[in-house]
């Protein structure tokens, strides 16, 4: 069973007297979810913790530095494909980072107002859990897909969500 991560860097930008809440999204340029908007993230490597993976993937995909200790666990999402567990994704958020997000071969980053997240260009389940995560809630979810591999071509059919769970990692 594959473990994966997602990292959602957050900032508040002041613009002409207004505070705009933003999240760093990437347009993924290869791999699973190619062409969709998402947070930086990917598969755990051997010996890595989810936090270490989220830090490494954020550096590799957009050249932004986040400290594993500064990541706040916000979600644990299980993706099921044709009734079998396909992957578990650890979701983190943080307001602490250094550097400027940079386009790489893997991803094109964009600071996006949280009120303007392009859910119609994201995975079909994201509109169910990402708004709550961006509001500061925690979530555990199961998401069922059907139709065979790859996961991003399967059909999203049903889900179960629990909000405001506590994580001890
Ligand atoms: N937002 C969102 N992300 C998802 C969904 N399903 C799913 O696998 N992901 C994420 C988890 C991972 O960050 C990413 C897939 O990871 P991956 O490891 O297969 O992708 P990759 O090709 O970039 O992998 P890597 O070699 O960089 O580790 O997509 C979903 O339904 N919604």
Automatic annotation (TrEMBL):
The keyword Hydrolase applies. Residues 45-61 have a biased composition (Basic and acidic residues). SUPFAM superfamilies: Nudix. GO terms for biological process: DNA protection. It holds the Pfam family NUDIX. Its EC number is 3.6.1.56. It is an enzyme of class 3 (hydrolase). Residues 36-63 are annotated as: Disordered. It comes from the Archaea. InterPro entries: 8ODP, NUDIX_hydrolase-like_dom_sf, NUDIX_hydrolase_CS, NUDIX_hydrolase_dom. GO terms for molecular function: 8-oxo-7,8-dihydroguanosine triphosphate pyrophosphatase activity; dATP diphosphatase activity; metal ion binding. Its cofactor is Mg(2+). Gene3D superfamilies: Nucleoside Triphosphate Pyrophosphohydrolase (3.90.79.10). Transmembrane segments: none annotated. Belongs to the Nudix hydrolase family. Monomer. Oxidized purine nucleoside triphosphate hydrolase which is a prominent sanitizer of the oxidized nucleotide pool. Catalyzes the hydrolysis of 2-oxo-dATP (2-hydroxy-dATP) into 2-oxo-dAMP. Also has a significant hydrolase activity toward 2-oxo-ATP, 8-oxo-dGTP and 8-oxo-dATP. Through the hydrolysis of oxidized purine nucleoside triphosphates, prevents their incorporation into DNA and the subsequent transversions A:T to C:G and G:C to T:A. Also catalyzes the hydrolysis of methylated purine nucleoside triphosphate preventing their integration into DNA. This is Oxidized purine nucleoside triphosphate hydrolase. It comes from Natronorubrum sediminis.
């Amino acid at each position: 069973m594959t473990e994966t991560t997602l990292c959602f860097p957050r900032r508040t930008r002041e613009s002409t007297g207004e505070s705009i809440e933003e999240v760093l999204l990437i347009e993924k340029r290869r791999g699973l979810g190619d062409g969709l908007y998402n947070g930086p993230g990917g598969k755990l490597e051997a010996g890595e913790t989810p936090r270490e993976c989220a830090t490494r993937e954020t550096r590799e995909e957009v050249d932004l530095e986040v400290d594993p200790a500064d990541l706040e666990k916000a979600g644990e999402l299980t993706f099921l494909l044709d009734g079998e567990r396909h992957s578990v994704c650890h979701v983190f958020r943080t307001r602490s980072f250094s550097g400027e997000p940079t386009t790489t071969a893997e991803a094109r980053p964009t600071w996006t107002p949280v009120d303007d997240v392009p859910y119609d260009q994201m995975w079909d389940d994201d509109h169910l859990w990402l708004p709550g995560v961006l509001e500061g809630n925690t979530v555990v979810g199961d998401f069922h897909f059907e139709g065979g591999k790859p996961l991003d071509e399967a059909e999203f059919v049903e889900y179960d969500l629990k909000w405001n769970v506590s994580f001890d990692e």
